Write a sequence for this structure.
C-alpha cells in the first residue's frame, strides 16, 4: 500500500497570498493514499527540509509530493532532501503551484481550486513513479583540440600544463592562425607575433602535446568521456622527422604561387614554410601547385637540394585514430570575401583590400616589409579610405550581426598608417563606434582627436575606379551631405564569418550552429563555453566574432571545462532517459531521424536479431522527442512514462 | 529557329509616342528571331512610378487591370520594352505571388472572383532574349557588324531595383554584353551604368537631372564610348534631350548619341525600322554617322 506525503509551501506570501493554504491542505489530506498533508512557510529553508526528512522517516512515506515552486528552481534541493531521508529521489515529485498558479491568478478561490487540481495531477503521476538510479561512464583522460590559432594554442597549453595529454589538430601547415598574420594588436600596440610565437614554441616543446598539423578531423564517434576520433594527416611530401627547416629546397623550386599567409599580396614557392616563425618549422610541398603529380615526377630540384633527404614525393595520406574524453573546438574565422559586395568593386580593384591584407602590409615581415603600398603600382597612398561594417550589420548581404572587432582594428589601422605617412589623409566611414572593452574607447578617442583622421558617420554606397584613383561615394549623415572622395587605397573592414570548413565539422561532430554558421553554445548566458553536445567545448571566434583578449579568456575557460571533466574517473548521468521495448519496436527508424543528439541507432535485437532502435544512454538527454514520435509506442521516457502522464492528466481534468 | 515562340506584349504609353523607334526596331528584331509578339488587345497605363508605400495599394490597380487582361487573353508570359512598365508590372505581380501580399485586398476591392492568380510571368525584352534566344542566333542574323563601334550599355535603375525584380546583378549588370558582342560592337563597361538618370525629376528639377546626365555621359566618354545603348525611354530622354542643357554648364562636352539597344540590333541585322515621327533627329544622325562604315572600317572587311 502506497503511503503518500504532501507538503505545501507558502513561499512567504508568494503562494499564500492567492491560494488558501489551509483549505488546500485539508482537501489534499482526503485524497487516496495520502497519509500526511502538511504546510510550511518556506519548505526550501533548512528547518523546512529537516521537517520533510523527519516526516519521511517517521511516517514511513514511500512517495512525496512537494507543492511549491518550479522544479527548475528547487528540484535538486528536494531530491537531496529525499536522499538524506533514505528515499529514492525519483520518488519525490514537485507540483508547481507558484509559477503555474499563484503568480498568474488574482482570485483566491480560482487559485485554490487550480492548485488543488495541480496537486491531484502530481499525485496521479507520482503513483506510477518508479525508483531510478543514476549511472556512470568512464572518462578517457585526454583532450582533442581542433584549430591551432590563438584559441587552440591557449586551450592546449592550459590543459597540457595541468598534466593531461592533448592532441592538437591544425588544418594548415603551421600553428598561429590569423593572430600570426597581424601586425600590432589594439589597444596596446603590442607586436602580435612577438607575443604569439613563444606560445607556439611552448606547444611544440610540451611533452603532453601531440601536434598534428596539416591534418583534419574526419570522423568522431562516441560521447562525453570517450570519443573515438579519426584524423586525416595530409601528406606534406617532406618528412617531418628529417626536415631541419634550412630552406635549401626553396631557391630552385620553379613554381611561384600567391602566398595565402600574406592574403595573396605576396608570393611563395610550391615548397614553402608559411612564415619564418612557423611551428612546426618544417617545409611543405603544395601538391596542387607542384609540377609533380601522383603519377608523374617531372621536377626533382628540391629533392636534389635537400641534404637531409627529407623530400619524399611518394608520401600518402594517413589516418590516425585517437581516443579522448573531451573536445575543444577552436576553428576560428575568416573574412567575408570582397567579391560578395558588388558595389565595392567585387574584388575587381587591386587597391580595394580587406583588413587582413592591410595587416600584412603593416607587418614588418609582410610582403611590403611594413611599408604601406598600393598593390596596383607599389606607390605609397596619400588618401586612404577605411570602410567599417563592410558586410556587417547588413542583412542585404546576409550578415545581420556586428563583427565586433572592426571599430577597434580600423582605428588601429588609421593610427599606424598616419604614423607611417604623417602627411597622408585618412577617412573612416562608420555606422557607430563600438569600443566596449578595457582601454578601447580611450584608444579610439585618442586616434580621433590626436591623429587628424576624418571620421564620417555613414555608409559607403559605391566604389569605382577613375584613372589610377578610386572614387568612394558615401553619406555623411552628421552634415547630411553626400561625400565623394578620391582615394589611392580603400580598406574594407569585411564582416567576420565562420571559417569555411566549420559547417562540415559541425555535421561531423553532431553539434548545432546558428543561422550565421557560428557554433551554438548550450546556453547564451550560463553555458557559453559548451556546445549542445556534452564534452565538446567552444573557444574563440568559431563561437562568434571576438578579439584576442576574449578569445584567450574563452579558450582558458573551455580548457577549464575540459579539465573539470577530466578530474573525474567517471561521469554520473541522469537516469531520466528513453528506453526501447524491443518486443514492440518494429524497426522503422523514425526515432533515429527525430533524435537531435544522435543518441538513437538501429541495432540488432539481442533476442531476435531483427533491427530495432537502441538508445545510447550517455548521449540521450531525455527530451522525449522519440517517445512522442514513435508510431508503435515502443519508447518510454523513464521518469515521465505514458502511464504517469495519462494519470496526471486524468486527475487534472 | 525555335518553334512557336509566342509572347504577349504590353507596349505602354511611351512606346506609342516618343519611343516609336524603340518599338518598331524591337518588333522588327523579334520577327527575324522568330518571336511572335502579340500585343494585348486592350491595355491601359502600367501605373508608372511604383509606390514605395507598402500599405497603399491604390496606385497598383492600374497594373492589376493589365495583368488581369493578359490572363483573360490567355497569355502566361507577357513582355515589355519600357523598363518602367517592366518594373511596375513585375512588382505588382509579386504582390500576388509572395507572402504577406495584398492579393486578398486587391481582389476584394475589384470584386474579382476568383481573383487574379499572379500566374502571368512578366519579362523585359532583354530578359526574354537571354532566356529564349542564344547569342549565336543573333550573330547569325547580323549582316553589317558594328565592328569598331564602342557601345556603353546603360541600365539605369528600373531593370535592377529592387533586387527582387532585378533582371541581372544590380551592382554589376551585364545582360546587354552578349547581345552587343554578338552584333560585333566593343562593349564599354563604365561605373555609372547602373546609376539613376534622374528619372521624373526632369519635370521639376531639370538642372539636377542635367548634372546626372553630365556625369553619366562623361564617364562613358572617358572610358572610350562612341554611344550609349539604353533600354528605357525615360533614360533615353534624360540623357539625350538634356544634352543641350548640359552643354550650357559644360560647353566642352562632346555630343554623345543615345540609342535603344534594339535600334543597334536592327541596324546590324539590316532591318528597316525607322518610323516617321518620334525620332530625335540629332541623336540618330550622330549615331548613323558613327555607324556608317568608312572605307577603312574593319566592319566593312568583315562584311565581305
Amino acid at each position: 500500500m502506497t503511503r503518500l506525503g504532501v507538503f505545501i509551501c507558502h513561499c512567504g506570501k508568494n503562494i499564500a497570498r492567492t491560494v488558501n493554504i489551509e483549505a488546500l491542505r485539508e482537501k489534499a489530506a482526503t485524497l487516496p493514499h495520502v497519509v500526511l498533508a502538511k504546510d510550511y512557510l518556506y519548505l526550501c529553508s533548512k528547518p523546512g527540509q529537516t521537517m520533510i526528512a523527519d516526516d519521511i522517516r517517521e511516517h514511513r512515506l514511500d512517495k512525496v509530493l512537494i507543492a511549491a515552486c518550479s522544479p527548475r528552481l528547487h528540484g535538486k534541493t528536494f531530491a537531496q532532501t529525499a536522499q538524506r531521508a533514505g528515499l529514492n529521489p525519483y520518488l519525490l515529485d514537485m507540483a508547481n503551484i507558484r509559477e503555474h498558479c499563484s503568480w498568474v491568478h488574482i482570485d483566491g478561490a480560482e487559485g485554490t481550486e487550480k492548485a488543488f487540481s495541480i496537486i491531484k495531477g502530481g499525485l496521479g503521476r507520482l503513483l506510477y513513479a518508479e525508483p531510478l538510479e543514476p549511472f556512470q561512464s568512464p572518462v578517457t583522460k585526454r583532450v582533442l583540440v581542433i584549430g591551432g590559432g590563438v584559441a587552440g594554442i591557449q586551450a592546449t597549453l592550459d590543459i597540457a600544463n595541468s598534466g593531461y595529454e592533448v592532441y592538437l589538430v591544425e588544418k594548415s601547415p603551421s600553428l598561429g592562425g590569423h593572430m600570426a598574420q597581424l601586425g600590432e594588436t589594439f589597444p596596446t600596440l603590442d607586436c602580435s607575433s612577438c607575443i604569439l610565437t613563444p606560445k607556439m614554441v611552448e606547444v611544440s616543446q610540451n611533452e603532453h602535446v601531440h601536434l598534428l598539423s596539416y591534418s583534419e578531423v574526419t570522423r568522431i564517434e562516441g560521447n562525453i568521456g570517450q570519443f573515438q576520433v579519426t584524423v586525416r594527416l595530409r601528406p606534406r611530401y617532406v618528412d617531418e622527422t628529417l626536415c631541419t627547416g634550412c630552406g635549401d629546397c626553396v631557391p630552385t623550386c620553379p613554381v611561384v604561387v600567391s602566398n595565402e599567409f600574406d592574403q595573396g599580396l605576396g608570393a611563395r614557392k610550391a615548397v614553402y614554410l608559411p612564415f619564418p616563425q612557423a611551428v612546426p618549422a618544417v617545409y611543405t610541398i603544395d601538391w596542387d601547385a607542384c609540377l609533380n603529380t601522383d603519377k608523374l615526377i617531372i621536377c626533382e630540384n628540391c629533392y636534389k637540394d635537400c641534404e637531409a633527404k627529407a623530400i619524399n614525393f611518394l608520401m600518402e595520406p594517413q589516418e590516425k585514430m585517437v581516443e579522448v574524453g573531451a573536445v575543444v573546438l577552436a576553428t576560428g574565422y575568416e573574412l567575408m570575401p570582397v567579391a560578395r559586395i558588388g558595389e565595392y568593386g567585387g574584388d575587381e580593384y587591386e587597391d580595394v583590400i580587406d583588413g587582413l591584407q592591410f595587416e600584412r602590409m603593416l607587418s614588418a615581415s609582410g610582403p611590403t616589409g611594413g611599408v604601406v603600398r598600393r598593390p596596383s603600382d607599389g606607390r605609397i597612398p596619400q588618401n586612404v579610405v577605411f570602410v567599417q561594417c563592410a558586410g556587417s550589420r547588413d542583412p542585404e548581404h546576409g550578415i545581420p550581426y556586428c563583427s565586433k572587432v572592426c571599430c577597434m582594428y580600423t582605428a588601429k589601422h588609421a593610427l599606424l598608417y598616419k604614423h607611417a605617412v604623417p602627411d597622408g589623409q585618412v577617412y573612416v566611414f562608420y555606422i557607430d563606434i563600438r569600443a566596449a572593452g578595457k582601454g578601447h574607447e580611450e584608444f579610439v578617442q585618442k586616434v580621433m582627436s590626436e591623429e587628424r583622421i576624418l571620421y564620417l558617420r555613414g555608409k559607403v554606397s559605391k566604389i569605382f575606379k577613375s584613372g589610377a584613383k578610386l572614387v568612394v561615394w558615401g553619406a555623411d549623415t552628421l552634415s547630411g551631405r553626400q561625400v565623394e572622395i578620391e582615394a589611392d587605397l580603400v580598406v574594407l573592414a569585411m564582416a567576420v564569418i565562420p571559417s569555411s570548413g566549420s559547417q562540415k565539422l559541425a555535421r561531423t561532430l553532431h553539434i548545432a550552429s546558428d543561422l550565421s554558421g557560428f557554433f551554438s553554445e548550450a546556453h547564451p548566458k550560463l553555458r557559453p563555453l559548451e556546445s549542445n553536445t556534452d564534452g565538446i567545448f567552444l573557444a574563440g571566434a568559431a563561437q562568434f566574432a571576438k578579439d584576442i583578449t576574449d578569445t584567450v579568456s574563452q579558450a582558458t575557460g573551455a580548457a577549464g571545462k575540459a579539465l573539470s571533466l577530466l578530474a573525474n574517473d567517471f561521469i554520473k548521468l541522469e537516469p531520466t532517459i528513453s528506453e526501447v521495448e524491443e518486443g514492440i519496436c518494429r524497426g522503422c527508424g523514425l526515432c533515429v531521424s527525430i533524435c537531435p543528439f544522435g543518441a538513437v541507432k538501429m541495432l540488432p535485437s539481442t533476442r531476435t536479431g531483427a533491427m530495432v532502435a537502441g538508445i545510447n544512454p550517455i548521449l540521450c538527454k531525455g527530451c522525449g522527442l522519440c517517445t512522442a514520435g514513435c508510431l508503435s509506442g515502443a519508447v518510454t521516457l523513464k521518469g515521465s512514462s505514458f502511464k504517469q502522464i495519462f494519470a496526471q492528466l486524468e486527475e487534472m481534468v | 529557329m525555335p518553334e512557336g515562340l509566342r509572347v504577349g506584349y504590353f507596349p505602354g504609353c511611351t512606346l506609342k509616342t516618343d519611343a516609336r523607334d524603340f518599338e518598331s526596331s524591337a518588333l522588327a528584331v523579334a520577327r527575324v528571331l522568330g518571336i511572335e509578339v502579340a500585343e494585348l488587345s486592350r491595355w491601359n497605363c502600367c501605373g508608372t512610378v511604383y509606390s514605395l508605400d507598402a500599405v497603399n495599394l491604390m496606385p497598383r490597380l492600374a497594373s492589376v487591370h493589365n495583368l488581369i487582361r493578359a490572363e483573360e487573353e490567355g497569355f502566361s508570359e507577357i513582355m515589355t520594352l519600357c523598363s518602367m512598365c517592366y518594373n511596375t508590372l513585375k512588382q505588382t505581380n509579386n504582390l500576388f505571388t509572395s507572402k504577406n501580399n495584398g492579393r486578398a485586398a486587391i481582389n476584394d476591392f475589384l470584386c474579382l472572383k476568383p481573383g487574379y492568380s499572379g500566374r502571368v510571368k512578366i519579362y523585359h525584352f532583354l530578359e526574354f532574349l537571354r532566356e529564349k534566344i542564344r547569342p549565336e542566333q543573333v550573330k547569325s542574323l547580323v549582316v553589317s557588324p558594328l565592328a569598331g563601334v564602342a557601345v556603353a550599355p546603360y541600365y539605369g535603375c528600373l531593370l535592377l531595383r529592387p533586387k527582387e525584380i532585378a533582371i541581372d546583378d544590380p551592382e554589376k549588370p551585364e545582360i546587354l554584353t552578349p547581345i552587343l558582342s554578338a552584333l560585333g560592337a566593343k562593349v564599354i563597361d563604365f561605373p555609372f551604368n547602373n546609376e539613376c538618370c534622374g528619372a521624373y525629376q526632369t519635370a521639376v528639377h531639370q538642372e539636377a537631372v542635367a548634372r546626372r546626365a553630365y556625369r553619366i555621359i562623361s564617364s562613358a566618354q572617358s572610358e572610350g564610348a562612341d554611344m550609349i545603348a539604353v533600354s528605357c525611354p525615360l533614360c533615353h530622354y534624360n540623357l539625350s534631350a538634356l544634352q543641350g542643357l548640359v552643354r550650357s554648364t559644360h560647353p566642352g562636352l562632346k555630343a554623345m548619341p543615345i540609342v535603344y539597344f534594339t535600334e543597334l540590333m536592327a541596324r546590324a541585322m539590316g532591318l528597316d525600322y525607322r518610323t516617321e515621327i518620334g525620332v530625335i533627329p540629332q541623336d540618330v544622325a550622330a549615331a548613323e554617322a558613327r555607324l556608317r562604315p568608312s572605307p577603312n572600317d574593319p566592319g566593312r572587311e568583315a562584311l565581305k
Remarks:
- Chain A has a mean pLDDT of 95.
- The longest strand of chain A covers residues 215-223.
